[in-house]
Design brief:
By secondary structure, this protein is α+β, with helices and mostly antiparallel strands. It has two domains: 164 residues, no CATH class; 179 residues, Roll (C8orf32 fold), CATH 3.10.620.30. Helices cover 20% and strands 29% of the residues. The chain is built from eight helices and 21 strands. The strands form six sheets. A six-stranded antiparallel β-sheet has the order 1-6-9-4-21-13. Helix 2 packs across helix 4, helix 3 packs parallel to helix 6 and helix 4 packs across helix 5. The longest helix has 15 residues.
Length: 379
């Protein structure tokens, strides 16, 4: 058995060369969690027991998405162990998506991996805090290179054709980016709907959704439409793929089920809790959060109309704010994993991904893939 332990600021070397530091240096992390201030700490334990299709042989490879370190979330500790032949952490891809990569030499052997993450989160509430009350957009917005890439189209998110036409109709003559974002957000949250028959989080094929006239889907579909429309009017935007960690407190008063839940001890089975969110960039300020998809989920879960006061309260909050009973992994769309996978590019990287002798395993079916995610909140 092999084992790796990673603490703050740790970096590792592997046969593939130097691996990016896993954690941001943060020596002042508090040992206390203050929910009143939106600070919370979770332990997320992921277990994988890969079972290859009958008759399979050859090498098995597993890619697991790992959280980013940001102003609203920090990985305090990361451990992994298992029966793998080799395992290491990498971020060498187009979006810098952090990845735990593991390999097994033969699909007929025992293939297990356990990953434990201790994550501290902080509610991200720039609009609620009033930070933008004096914001004025620059006359000529300029974006650094690492932001400008979120203006570009991807396979599933074009910014021309029906996407551009729809975006222009929504914003009309409005040119101020924050107001454009509000118009697009409100259009998406009011006109799209959650469709629970969609597999997983959806595939976010924006042009197909708009052309069909059936504006349904799950979080990737709905938030991808928001992101693509924003890019089409010239405002950088992106999704962040992640997973719910436990009980919603602020939004939980409007729905006990829609935004995450846990038992009385703070323990939650989050195996199927994958959820993507969205954000957009204001020149002269920075990134702002949004999540129109969760507005549609709340409507469906509570069987309410969009103009219901509770829905409108959630709608107002989720433009410019996130409650962080959730952790984000990465921003990747239509990109190549590293180390390279046989079936690329990958649409998004919110779920673990595995290949048996080059053939992908269905990551939408955790009972088939055999993985389990358990979260426990420090009380």
């Amino acid at each position: 058995m092999q084992r790796r332990d990673f603490l703050k600021g740790a970096a590792i070397l592997s046969a593939a060369g130097t691996v990016m530091p896993v954690l941001a240096a943060s020596t002042q992390a508090s040992s206390m969690v203050d929910k009143a201030c939106g600070r919370r700490r979770f332990t997320l334990t992921n277990t994988y027991q890969l079972v290859a299709p009958e008759g399979s042989s050859g090498v098995v490879k597993l890619w697991v998405p790992l959280p980013e370190n940001t102003a609203f979330q920090q990985v305090e500790k990361l451990n992994f162990s298992g029966t793998y032949q080799d395992a290491y952490i990498s971020a060498n891809n187009h979006y810098g998506a952090k990845t735990l990569f593991a390999t097994w030499p033969d699909a007929k052997g025992k293939m297990t991996l356990t990953l434990e993450l201790v994550i501290e989160t902080q509610d991200w509430e720039p609009l609620k805090s009033g930070e933008l009350s004096h914001y004025r957009a620059p006359v000529k917005p300029e974006y650094p290179a690492e932001v400008a890439i979120y203006l570009k189209p991807t396979k599933h998110m074009p910014v021309d054709g029906i996407v551009k036409q729809t975006a222009d109709k929504i914003v009309g003559k409005e040119t101020e980016p924050l107001k454009q974002a509000q118009l697009i957000y409100n259009w998406v949250s009011a006109n799209m709907y959650r469709d629970n028959s969609v597999i997983g989080c959806g595939n976010g094929d924006v042009a197909a959704i708009l052309e069909s006239g059936k504006l349904g889907g799950k979080c990737t579909d709905i938030n991808s439409v928001f992101v693509a429309l924003m890019r089409a009017v010239g405002v950088p935007a992106r999704e962040m793929f992640g997973i719910r960690l436990g009980q919603a407190i602020k939004m939980g008063k409007y729905s006990k089920k829609a935004f995450g839940s846990a038992d009385e001890k703070g323990v939650a089975d989050v195996t199927g809790g994958q959820h993507c969110r969205a954000m957009f960039y204001l020149a002269g300020y920075g990134w702002l959060p949004a999540d129109p998809a969760d507005v549609t989920k709340m409507r469906l879960t509570e069987n309410k109309e969009h103009n219901d006061p509770a829905v409108q309260a959630v709608n107002d909050y989720l433009f410019g704010n996130w409650e962080m009973n959730w952790v984000g992994f990465n921003y990747g769309r239509d990109f190549d994993l590293f180390p390279a996978a046989e079936q690329t590019p990958l649409n998004n990287f919110g779920y673990p991904y595995a290949e048996v002798d080059g053939d992908p395993v269905n990551y939408y079916e955790p009972k088939v893939f055999a993985y389990d995610y358990q979260s426990s909140e420090q009380r």
